[in-house]
Amino acid sequence: MTAVHDSPGSLDQDAEPTAVVTVSVNGAEVTGRVPVRMHAADFLRQRLGLTGTHVGCEQGVCGMCTVIVDGEAVKSCLMLACQLDGRAVRTVESLAEGDRLGPLQEAFAARGALQCGFCTPGLLMTATALAYQGGRPDREAVREEIAGVLCRCTGYEPIVTAIEEYFAGLPETGEEEENART
Amino acid sequence: MTVADLSRSEMDRPDLPARGVLGASAPRKEDHRLLRGDGAFTDDVQPARAAQMAVARCPYPHARIVSIDTSRAERLPGVLHILTGADIRETTGPLTVLRPVPGAPELPYRALADGVATHEGQPVVSVVATSRHIAEDALDLLDIEYEPLPHVVDTMEALGPGAPVLQPAVLDSNLLAAQTDRRGDPEARLREADVVVGARFRINRVTALPMEPRAVVAQWRPGARMLTVHASTQVPHLVRKQLAETLGLDESEIRTVAGDVGGGFGLKLGVFPEDVLACVHAMALRLPVKWVEDRGEHFRGSTHARESVHDYTIGADAEGRIVAMMDRYVTDLGGWNSPFGSAQLSSVVFNGPYKVHDGLVERRVALTNKTPIGAYRGYGQPEVNFAYERLMDMLARELGADPVELRARNMVTQAELPWENPAGAVYDSGDYERCLRMAAEAVGWSRHRDAPRTLREDGRIVGIGFSSFVERTGYASSRFLARRGSRFGAHESVTLRANRSGGVDAYTGVSSMGQSSETAFAQVISHVTGIAYDAVRVHGGDTAASPLNTGAFASRTMIAASGALKAAGEEFAAKTRRIAAYALGCAPEEVRIEGREARADGRTVPLAEVFTRALTGQGIPPEEEPGLECTAHFEPMDAAYSFGTAAAVVSVDPVTGEFDVERFVLAHDGGTLVNPAVVEGQIRGALAQGFGAALGEELRYDPGTGQLVNGSMMDYFVPTAADVPPVELLHTEVPSPVTPFGVRGVGEAGTIPPAAAVANAVCDALSAWGVELFTLPITPESIWRAMRAATGQEAP
Ligand code: FES
Ligand code: FES
């Protein structure tokens, strides 16, 4: 057995280039120093403790790491933490109000849209970002929109139903604009 | 229905739950935390000062490790510890197998390759550093010299003459073992048969691909002699046993914890090399050591499944009655024997739902220079179903018979059950024909049967195909397992403990991996005791906080656990009633437990008070012992057989081979349903995996280089939301006579029929050309090639 470098002090000080980022995460501003090669998912999970964002492939394929950056769903494993500088991130941890689940989360529970739950945060954030676009996608459109997030447990049907019901419960885009104006 | 409504007030028929909390789609206990991103998956365990592990893997399918020089890697700042095969040989024993191949010699292997590596991706060196980045940088600085050895990746070639032998110290060929089950004289029956159909069926190599990769966090406190291992596993108590054996520790020195598990499907059964490595590093460094598998490693260093070749023959008389069934098959084991090894259930249910006296099934296990094969949902049953159900359709064509009627004529009838098949499996109960008829009717079979298979307006031809199956769920007792050499039991266990808040804490070794065990267990407890569903909390997966159990696999959890939950629940309720009666001044028989209180004759006492009395010993009957905690174990004596029939409606373009599954109906019986919504979820999920394996997934090896050519999610296509065909589910509910509450396992059924049903539909559509499919996956290209072959044209 080869024991080397018995200086555990170095545990906290990765000897590699770092950068300072300032980012709004779920409405709170965070400033921190990160290694330049750390990706955004690791930053959220390891530096901020927001472990609801999952990592399944680190290749941009599985969608487990999907979060919302400046209003758009992105795969946070394909982004560097430094690239978050000056931007607003929303993660699954923001969806409940206190202990009350949000309407999309309620729809998932009611429809049996999760089993192991590993894919769930990615799907919730994808559907949340979809709602920002307004409109009311039909089942086929929902299927296409969430095809970037894999689920190995459910067969997707209940997920599509839950998202469809969530959209049905949203105010019409027109109404929303109406409300915004008044 | 609200949660409160679910608490069952009647205890009239605890055996056959028709209503109440058992049999209701209770809201899942697991959902709230998972929906909030508050699950506790293994990578979410982040101990302070944890060091990170990375693993160097053999890039060749078969190679001798000539030398390893770690000096450059050691000098990289941040690198803490490096292990090679020589270190591992000194400090650990071989990894142990849970389900050895019956009759086979042991093939010991260690956490790091010891001299020779037998598959691409086998761990060779492990490095621990202050960050994963640095650990991976260090891998690039390792100087490992390999001498590539001749390799073989094709299953049948591995058994042929001249193939390089993988384990020359133990074997003189790559045939690890052969095992035959037989009854009667099937060879003679085949010679006498009026019609014989047979073919070679090739089943593709696939992988379970749970969305959460494997992961482990090991922590060692030398003074306490305590190794705490968080791992993403279906079997925490078995992992503890295997780690103790491999590391030379007492079991008491190890605690294994499986928090939330992001999908298992059979892949996360038992100890993998990286689990051992993380422990050895942690013990040497006295630091927490974490390893999280990346997807590239997952495709090469976890396990694959299903790859097999079946030579199957069926003989029948002129009326279409089956007289013999014979399956000689080879399963590919890969480079070594993973804890569960290759599938064994192809043998157990080789004849499916069909009644046959004379039968033979021969299983041969072949070693190849590929990633080891492990368990995967279905464990041999989808594979053999593809073979016998394709042959049933070929037999129907040969006889000019209706494939539905041919199936019906040969199915074991309700009156004949229980019935023992030629392999010794005892089918318990059911109405197989009913599911067949339901599926046939749902897709309008009788109309379709007589209609010509002509082009639709869109240039497609529509075909309908069926697949009928039985599914072995659970294990037939520890005696059965002992005969097969398995090193685990058949029982489940649970501890119920009262708490002063008036609720019940249930402790189980079963970890939560999406199968909804917390929900289902709480339902059974609530049903048996009368205590409110939402007053029951299930704690799973921690070996330090649960009675010893077996684990979550083989669709066995609910069958075995139901018995333990029932026994513990009854004892718990009886004592609760005795103490409540003392408080209320009445007889225990008068007390009913309802929700969060006990009542008798219009008076009530809160369970919080009853349980506080019990836990303090203050205010309980003088002859009563203090405390309220009940542990029960249960071992089922028999397996229960689920069954069903699927029907696929497929449209095929006869020019290009393009096809779509336009409808897919599954009529299925899962016995008594503890939670119908959960059961439906299990079936839909398993079907999606079945479609994936039938229609697209295939791990391909290049025969020349022995490399896995599509080992990433970019090249290995699992179904997305846009790919899963529309599914319609029909249920019958025949309670099993051999299990508590009449439950059958439901976790795996969906994986079984998709391949055969879709292939049969394609062949039905193209029957004018005489197209028959023998190979999985079914793709436009494979159909196009089969068309060319059937019409005598060359295919490039
Ligand atoms: S982890 Fe980001 S897409 Fe898979
Ligand atoms: S619920 Fe397990 S991957 Fe989707």
Top keywords for this entry?
heterodimer, A: 182 residues, alpha+beta, Ubiquitin-like (UB roll), DNA polymerase, domain 1, 2 domains, five-stranded mixed sheet, 6 helices, globular, disordered C terminus, B: 796 residues, Aldehyde Oxidoreductase, domain 4, 3 domains, seven-stranded mixed sheet, binds FE2/S2 (inorganic) cluster, 2Fe-2S_ferredoxin-type (chain A), anaerobic carbon-monoxide dehydrogenase activity (chain A), 2Fe-2S (chain A), iron-sulfur (chain A)
Short description:
The complex is a heterodimer of chains A (182) and B (796). By secondary structure, chain A is an alpha+beta fold. Chain A has helices at 40-47, 103-111, 120-132, 139-145, 157-169, 173-181; strands at residues 2-3, 18-25, 28-35, 66-69, 72-75, 88-90.
How would you characterize this protein structure?
- The complex is a heterodimer of chains A (182) and B (796).
- Chain A is of the alpha+beta class.
- Chain A has helices at 40-47, 103-111, 120-132, 139-145, 157-169, 173-181, and strands at 2-3, 18-25, 28-35, 66-69, 72-75, 88-90.
- Chain A contains six helices and six strands, in the order E-E-E-H-E-E-E-H-H-H-H-H.
- In chain A, a hairpin with a 2-residue loop joins strand 4 and strand 5 (72-75).
- Chain A is globular, with a radius of gyration of 19 Å.
- The model of chain A is unreliable at 1-12 and 174-182 (pLDDT under 50).
- Chain B has three domains: 44-149 and 213-261 and 268-301, Alpha-Beta Complex (Aldehyde Oxidoreductase, domain 3); 376-472 and 640-790, Aldehyde Oxidoreductase, domain 4 (2-Layer Sandwich); 491-634, Aldehyde oxidase/xanthine dehydrogenase, molybdopterin binding domain (Aldehyde Oxidoreductase, domain 4, 2-Layer Sandwich), CATH 3.30.365.10.
- Helix content of chain B is 27%, strand content 23%.
- The radius of gyration of chain B is 28 Å and the shape is globular.
- Mean pLDDT of chain B is 94; it is low at 1-19.
- At the A-B interface, strand 1, helix 2, helix 3, helix 4 and helix 5 of A face helix 1, strand 3, helix 3 and helix 19 of B.
- Strand 1 of chain A pairs antiparallel with strand 3 (79-84) of chain B, so a sheet runs across the interface.
- The structure holds FE2/S2 (inorganic) cluster (2 copies).
- One FE2/S2 (inorganic) cluster sits between chains A (114-119, 151-154) and B (211, 263, 514).
